[in-house]
Amino acid sequence: MARRYFGTDGIRGLANKHPMTAEVALKVGMAAGHLFTNGSHRHRVVIGKDTRLSGYMIESAMQSGFTSVGVDVFLLGPMPTPAVAMLTRSLRADLGVMISASHNPFYDNGIKLFGPDGYKLSDEIEEKIEALMDAPSTDLLVEATRIGRATRIDSAQERYIEFAKRTLPRNLKLDRQRVVIDCAHGAAYKVAPLALWELGAEVIKIGVEPDGTNINKKCGSTSPEALCEKVREVRADLGIALDGDADRVILVDEQGQIIDGDQLLAVIAETWQRRGRLAAGGIVASVMSNLGLERYVKSLGLSMARTPVGDRYVVEYMRKHGYNVGGEQSGHIVLSDFSTTGDGLIAALQILATVVQTEKPVSEVCKRFDPLPQVLKNVRYTEGKPLEDKKVVQAIEAGRKQLGEKGRLVIRPSGTEPLIRVMAEGDDEGLVNRVVGDIVSELQKVA
Q1: pLDDT at 1 over 60
Q2: The domain 374-446 is classified under which CATH number: 2.40.110.10, 3.30.310.50, 3.40.50.1360, 3.40.50.300?
Q3: Which residue, of 209, 258, 265, 362, has the fewest CB within 10 Å?
Q4: Please, is 367 exposed, middle or buried when counting C-beta atoms within 10 Å of its C-beta (0-12, 13-18, 19+)?
């Protein structure tokens, strides 16, 4: 069945344009609230958001939708996505909502829904919500005496900070760590620096002055250049770059060099294996993770499963097969002992714990393998299905044959934009560049 609103990660789009309008947000609240109402007890939903200007509009509309079908609303204000997932469980809510477009610019926004267990909703449940969104609203409304109430939860930040701190080994302190944190002017601009400070670190903050339009703008995990410069300037031990909703993280070592999600997965996998904490004998990563990571993990006697791109697919695989460490090169790190989704702050704290315990610099701790040359190019298209073009298909087949067993080729359409992503990696950098170039050239002819 074709989905009209939900994509690979909730509903997302340009703010004030379909489907990211107040009208759609109202319908989502009504439909989801109605679907999750079962029994005569009071039902509740928690709603968090990042710092986008349009967040006020979407939040108010969803609040109206939920209360109109008899659901009480707990408003968290700006909070990281993983905090919303955690608080959904902690507050025994029937649903959790995060209003965010993650690492996208401010003019985009999105709606992510979590079930009472803190996990993102399944495709089947999202389809049921869509069906209810198209039903007459009068069929969903409750009588006046049952309209829900809205309450702002002032303790939400403290709850999440304490939760994050408890993921570290007992009595571990960050007293000698000078940390620069870039919060991307996003959802974690208050909680992340405060958590680090309470753990004893010397904290230098950037990206903590949101104005509604500067989220992810030349800052955060997708633009870590400012963080690299600041780390070198203040001679910090570590730099932490979160994205707009803080479910992903990129680190910077004391030399100002970027550390991506693949290296973080390698560090955590080896550390947890040594402690006897790693479950299922391996980790889960996406098809975009570097082949160097896979080879390194195997050298430790561990396995590495691959999933389609998207943290929801990583989480689904982890849950089905019993893994507790998974993530993506982009910085989504899922540690299911603690969280039901990616958590940038908690991932960074795990790395800091290893740094403190080994008394080694971050550059040494986080350099676990040499990544293979990897090239990623995006081709924007306007219409049609460029991947079905005959010459494009031939170019892709030729590329796979040229790379053979010494490389990988991943071609995929973006889940949120009209883009075709072409990624290749291998031991021969020149060959990798030629393969990507040939495919991109054919795609551009039909895009």
Answers
A1: no
A2: 3.30.310.50
A3: 209
A4: middle
299 is catalytic: no
Provide mean pLDDT across the span 248-259: 98
The most distant pair of C-alpha atoms in the chain lies apart, rounded to whole Å, by 70
* pTM reported for the whole predicted model: 0.93
Given the residues 54, 68, 102, 221, the one annotated as active site = 102
Where helices occur in 278-371 by DSSP H, the ranges are 291-299, 311-321, 344-358, 362-365
Are 313 and 305 contacting, i.e. CB atoms less than 8 angstroms apart?
A: no
CATH fold of 261-343+358-365, please? Alpha-D-Glucose-1,6-Bisphosphate; Chain A, domain 3 (3.40.120)
Whole-number percent of the chain with pLDDT over 90: 92
Mean pLDDT of the chain: 96
407 CB-near residues (< 8 Å, 6+ apart): 291, 372, 424, 425, 426, 427, 428, 431, 432, 435
Q: Which CATH architecture has domain 11-154?
A: 3-Layer(aba) Sandwich (3.40)
